[in-house]
Write a structure and sequence with these properties.
- This protein has 87 residues and is an all-alpha fold.
- It has a domain at 21-70.
- Helices cover 77% and strands 0% of the residues.
- The chain has five helices and no strands.
- Helix 1 runs antiparallel to helix 2 (19-33) and helix 2 (19-33) packs antiparallel against helix 3.
- It is globular.
């Protein structure tokens, strides 16, 4: 629940000038509020922003948002990754 609130509060503060980019963020916020899994919402938002980038329709703000979403939190993922090494 904490991670959902963390991503939700981050996305609620995002205000992009591009309506297509802001629409993707709005959809992600609605999905998180409805209880969707944080990782799938984040991945879906990344996919949408990547499609805009491939079509060269993304703003600098959108690129920065995509970079922030792709940045991994190694401190929280380290334990999960190390558990798979020993199974």
């Amino acid at each position: 629940m904490f991670k959902i609130q963390k991503l939700l509060s981050f996305l609620e503060r995002v205000n992009l000038k591009s309506s297509s980019e802001q629409g993707l963020v709005g959809t992600a916020v609605k999905d998180l509020e409805s209880g969707s899994y944080e990782e799938s919402v984040s991945r879906s938002l990344q996919d949408g922003l990547e499609k805009l980038a491939l079509n060269k329709q993304i703003s600098q703000e959108g690129i920065e948002l995509l970079s922030n979403l792709k940045r991994k939190e190694y401190s929280s993922n380290y334990g999960l990754a190390s558990m798979t090494w020993f199974n």
